[in-house]
């Protein structure tokens, strides 16, 4: 979820609707500095209402093909495989089959009690903060993989038999001078109302690449690409009050486009502009941004350059409330960037407007699918009011 620039006029989103009315998004952890909430015994109301699903893990193995069908282009993370092996061993030792319920691969029943006790001890025994992050992320991903098997569509992350929207999506080729990186919080991986997934569904996983926070293999792939491209080719769409931001016009306008260090060379894929989108709840994104800043300081000795957008909120505000109205979902932010670049002379001939519209259409399809699901389940479609948070 990304903030748009404050006090800028709404200009592009053709599917914009008036103040929304649907509540959907659950509150999640806001810091990586304390034991994560998955170790606590409370369940979300949606998980509590959902019948348990027994895990159909077979021998528990995750193939590379299965892993990459969910969206990543990386090898299977070693820590994720390690956690899955530990879950299988625990299942054998306590003679209780894993069961899942609700969204996000939440463990349920007696196995959950045993698993939480074991993993609380493992987490607290880790002295290195980096090891805690890796363990936390791997545990989230492992449970979501096993809990979603045979239940969620591997492409759109919606219930396969009831709500799959894949037949409605229309892929679009992204101009090769741009590459998106979706830096996703592990609690957003396989989340049904996540919009970051729409980028690789529409543009393909090599034009919009998934990088999961805390998964070392993913972060290494992303930062190796950034190092190869050079700092002048890397931008983060995460402006906040503590960061110096640059508008799209300032960064890529006519004056800047004359600079060969900024203008992409389409004969070389490594010359593409890399745009990093932080994909997580607003509270989680703060920890994610800190991690990016630390790595940028380590690599380049300075902070990651940030871009602010002039576009307004997206249709997803109808579905999931944001802390304030100047913040938008990941896919809408990417579409907004494409629209703003399209208006610049140096980018006007690349069809970015059509590519942005394809992404907007996908957001609307996701909104419709999730709304239909809520209505079918008899759930409320009245958006809860939240107080705006002033930056």
TrEMBL record:
GO terms for biological process: tRNA processing. The keyword tRNA processing applies. Residues 149-379 form the DTW domain. It catalyses: a uridine in tRNA + S-adenosyl-L-methionine = a 3-[(3S)-3-amino-3-carboxypropyl]uridine in tRNA + S-methyl-5'-thioadenosine + H(+). GO terms for molecular function: tRNA-uridine aminocarboxypropyltransferase activity. Its EC number is 2.5.1.25. It is an enzyme of class 2 (transferase). The keyword Electron transport does not apply. This is tRNA-uridine aminocarboxypropyltransferase. It comes from Linum trigynum.
């Amino acid at each position: 979820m990304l903030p748009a620039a404050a006090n800028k006029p709404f200009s592009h989103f053709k599917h914009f609707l008036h103040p929304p009315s649907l509540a959907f998004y659950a509150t999640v952890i806001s810091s990586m500095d304390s034991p994560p909430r998955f170790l606590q015994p409370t369940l979300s109301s949606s998980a509590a209402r959902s019948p348990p699903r027994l895990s159909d893990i077979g021998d528990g193995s995750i193939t590379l093909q299965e892993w990459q069908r969910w969206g990543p282009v990386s090898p299977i993370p070693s820590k994720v495989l390690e956690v899955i092996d530990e879950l299988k061993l625990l299942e054998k030792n306590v003679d209780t089959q894993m069961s899942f319920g609700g969204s996000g691969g939440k463990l349920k029943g007696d196995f959950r009690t045993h698993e939480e006790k074991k993993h609380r001890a493992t987490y607290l025994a880790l002295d290195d903060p980096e090891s805690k992050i890796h363990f936390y992320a791997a545990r989230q991903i492992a449970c979501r993989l096993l809990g979603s098997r045979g239940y969620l569509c591997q492409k759109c992350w919606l219930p396969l038999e009831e709500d799959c929207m894949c037949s409605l999506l229309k892929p679009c080729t992204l101009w090769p001078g741009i590459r998106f990186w979706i830096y996703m919080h592990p609690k957003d991986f396989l989340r049904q109302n996540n919009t970051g997934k729409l980028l690789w569904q529409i543009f393909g996983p090599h034009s919009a690449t998934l990088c999961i926070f805390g998964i070392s293999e993913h972060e290494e792939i992303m930062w190796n690409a950034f190092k190869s491209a050079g700092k002048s080719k890397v931008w983060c769409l995460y402006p906040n009050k503590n960061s110096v931001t640059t508008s799209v016009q300032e960064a890529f306008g006519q004056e800047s486009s004359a600079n060969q260090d900024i203008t992409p060379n389409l004969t070389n894929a490594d010359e593409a502009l890399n745009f990093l989108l932080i994909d997580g709840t607003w509270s989680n994104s703060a920890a994610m941004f800190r991690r990016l800043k630390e790595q940028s300081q380590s690599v380049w000795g300075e902070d990651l350059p940030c871009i602010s957008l002039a576009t307004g909120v997206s249709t997803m505000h109808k579905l999931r409330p944001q802390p304030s109205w100047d913040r938008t979902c990941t896919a809408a932010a990417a579409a907004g960037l494409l629209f703003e670049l399209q208006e610049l002379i140096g980018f006007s001939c690349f069809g970015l407007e059509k590519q942005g519209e394809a992404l907007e259409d996908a957001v609307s399809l996701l909104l419709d699918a999730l709304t239909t699901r809520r209505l079918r389940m008899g759930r409320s479609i009245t958006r809860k009011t939240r107080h705006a948070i002033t930056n």
